[in-house]
Design brief:
Blueprint (H helix, E strand, L loop, with lengths): L2 H8 L2 H15 L5 H10 L10 H14 L4 E2 L2 E2 H10 L6 H17 L7 H14 L10
Helix pairs in contact: 2-3, 2-4, 5-6, 5-7
């Protein structure tokens, strides 16, 4: 977590409001009641307010959850999910369920399947488990 970036964001009310709106637009259906009310409050953020460190960290966490990428470190999400779907019977039960869920998303979105940082981390761990990627490939 980059605390400098968080402090910069916290001192820029228009950026805080835009970030909150963007997060709600991207992952609105996945938000808990607390997260939704937190973002609602941030949408009203004004110049004289200041985000606490805890609020900054919560915003960073939600922003990270809302950030989606179709590719990471040369791997395309759709291709990796498809390869893991083909070997799902060799995976643990938890990994198989996870890949099955991603495969359903893949069928809807096709090659435009985009994953959050948390989803990429778990996908890389499953891919290592299945031997689809080398152990030295790290998530960053």
């Amino acid at each position: 977590m980059d605390y400098r970036e968080l402090a910069r964001l916290a001192s820029n009310p228009p950026a805080v409001r835009l970030c909150a709106k963007t997060i709600k637009a991207v992952i609105g259906e996945e938000l808990t009641d607390w997260e939704r009310s937190f973002l609602d409050e941030l949408e009203k953020f004004v110049d004289h307010d200041r985000l606490s460190t805890r609020q900054q960290e919560a915003l960073h966490s939600l922003r990270s959850k809302a950030t989606r990428r179709t590719m990471l470190q040369g791997f395309r999400a759709s291709t990796l999910v498809k390869r893991l779907w083909e070997v799902r019977c060799d995976l643990s039960e938890e990994s198989e369920e996870y890949i099955s869920g991603l495969f359903k998303d893949l069928q809807e979105k096709g090659s435009e399947l985009a994953l959050s940082n948390g989803q990429w981390k778990f996908l890389f761990s499953v891919a290592r488990e299945a031997g689809e990627i080398e152990r030295y490939v790290e998530f960053s």
